[in-house]
Write a structure and sequence with these properties.
The protein is an alpha/beta fold. It has eight helices and 17 strands.
């Protein structure tokens, strides 16, 4: 049951948010979690680079395990989209998530949303591993296989160059749009042997073992296609609270995951830095521990110089 007020409200039910909630519960803090159910991790077909799972683990399985662990500590979880956040006159915060929730501190673990190509059934193709979104996560599984990257900006070119370390068969697909990169970036693509296909695709065939794409009379086959269209940080609540943002819209934090606003913390893919499960979990741990330390200081159970 969601109560009137908490020591800390965690917004976001991905790896960062769930980790923060688990830590705060084990710190014996009154914590609640709001989860809109749109974690990027849910779409991961199988992660092979998350430590502790030598055979890999599906994203939805990992989230289910973490949620079960959190629930064992009795953390209330509200399945709703948090829509508004504001500071109250007494210094606490109110977050609207179908109902008002009041807390002394907030941890924003709202994540980012991937821009994906407008293809029918795109979510299922991502869950099947045919359309991918993170070469850091899974390029190893594509060693020496033909892969494609969709996009026209530097982020797509960067992913194509990253993949060249794993396979010489990398193709950049602009799907009929102009390639908007500098001459220097174009030169790097050329030197790396990245093929650039500028034509629009006329047909897509998603199979169990790969993706065939037709460009007029030519048909190209790939083991997987990466969406190099960038991400959209889910920063609406941060904006409500006046939190400082980086140029790309992600949240700026200090080494304790503290934002520019007092008692507001952030962790996970909405924060600047490397978007990885283990990183998000570590940031959730750091944020939760800092909240606990600040509360201990207020309660007279912490030395100021130990913060």
């Amino acid at each position: 049951m969601v109560e009137d007020t908490y020591d800390c409200l965690v917004v976001g039910g991905g790896p960062a948010g769930l980790t923060a909630a688990i830590y705060l519960a084990r710190f014996r803090r009154r914590v609640a979690l709001v989860d809109g159910g749109k974690s990027r991790a849910f779409l991961i077909p199988r992660s092979h680079n998350h430590p502790g799972y030598p055979d890999g683990i599906r994203g939805d399985d990992l989230l289910a395990r973490m949620r079960q662990q959190m629930q064992q500590y009795g953390v209330p979880c509200l399945s709703a989209q948090a829509t508004d956040a504001a500071r109250l006159p007494d210094g606490r915060f109110s977050v609207q998530a179908g109902q008002p929730i009041v807390a002394d501190h907030i941890i924003l673990a709202t994540g980012s949303r991937d821009r994906v190509p407008p293809l029918e059934g795109i979510i299922q193709h991502i869950r099947n591993g045919l359309v991918r979104q993170c070469p850091v996560c899974d390029a190893y599984e594509l060693i020496d296989k033909p892969v494609a990257v969709i996009g026209t900006q530097d982020c797509a070119a960067g992913e194509a160059l990253f993949l060249c370390h794993y396979t010489p068969q990398v193709t950049l697909l602009t799907l009929g749009d102009d390639l908007a990169v500098s001459e220097d970036v174009q030169s790097k693509l050329d030197d790396a042997g990245v093929r650039i296909v500028r034509e629009r695709a006329t047909a897509w065939d998603f199979r169990d073992t790969g993706v065939d794409i037709r460009f007029g009379d030519e048909r190209l086959g790939f083991a997987a296609v990466y969406s190099g269209l960038g991400i959209v940080p889910q920063n609406a609540l941060a904006r409500d609270l006046g939190v400082a943002l980086a140029e790309d819209g992600r949240i700026l934090t200090d080494p304790h995951q503290h934002t520019s606003v007092e008692k507001v913390f952030a962790a996970g893919d909405v924060v600047t830095g490397l978007n990885q499960i283990a990183v998000a979990m570590a940031q959730g741990e750091i944020a939760a521990t800092r909240v606990h330390s600040l509360l201990r200081l207020r309660e007279g159970r912490c030395l100021a110089d130990s913060l």
